[in-house]
């Protein structure tokens, strides 16, 4: 049976509402992806009759979403900052709270100041690429221990034709030369407790687990980063990290334990402390 775009949209939203809290957005993104149209066109072209092949493809992807498969992986992209980034199952899906790291980076140093930045565990390259695009005079290195994730980051950097970003295969600092010093280190590291049941639920269950969990209290990688970062910072350089909404005090204590100064923390839009930073004295 033929369906118009509007009829399919309404039906799909009703079906998906039992499985997703963002059914309307999910359906819109899937339809726009298959038909290569904008969300505005969903309104202006709602009487368009779909071809059987289009209808079948959309319905297949809606069924996939019903199985909690992330929309970002279904359509192969995610919006972050002012970017549209390719994502795959080899990368974490960039989230709005991670934009706090970009905001902090851009606020710390002047636009025309010679600034060296290292993004640790770059994944899709979201943070590094956002900064590199906004600050073409800065020098950015982004590292990850996953060659597959670095391949995605490379494609994203090439999309925006960035010449001030370099990608390195490194497990945290392992393959960063000791003589290299940076003004700013950034990371969205794994920080979920390894036995957290949420790791097996919703979208998260499909994301790379090594990029999500970090020991019994979720802080193993954060401890490693804070302990080792000082060797790679210029005097008065900064380290900023994303962490869980309930880890702020523990992260602050780790910064204090390692004698960082000017320790600061910032809230996300929900009022949770989600990033913390410290300065090399």
UniProtKB/TrEMBL annotation:
InterPro entries: DNA_methylase_N6_adenine_CS, HemK-like, N5-glutamine_MTase, PrmC_N, RF_methyltr_PrmC, SAM-dependent_MTases_sf, Small_mtfrase_dom. Residues 106-195 form the Methyltransferase small domain. GO terms for molecular function: nucleic acid binding; peptide chain release factor N(5)-glutamine methyltransferase activity. Its EC number is 2.1.1.297. The keyword Phosphoprotein does not apply. CDD domains: AdoMet_MTases (cd02440). Gene3D superfamilies: DNA helicase RuvA subunit, C-terminal domain (1.10.8.10), Vaccinia Virus protein VP39 (3.40.50.150). This is peptide chain release factor N(5)-glutamine methyltransferase.
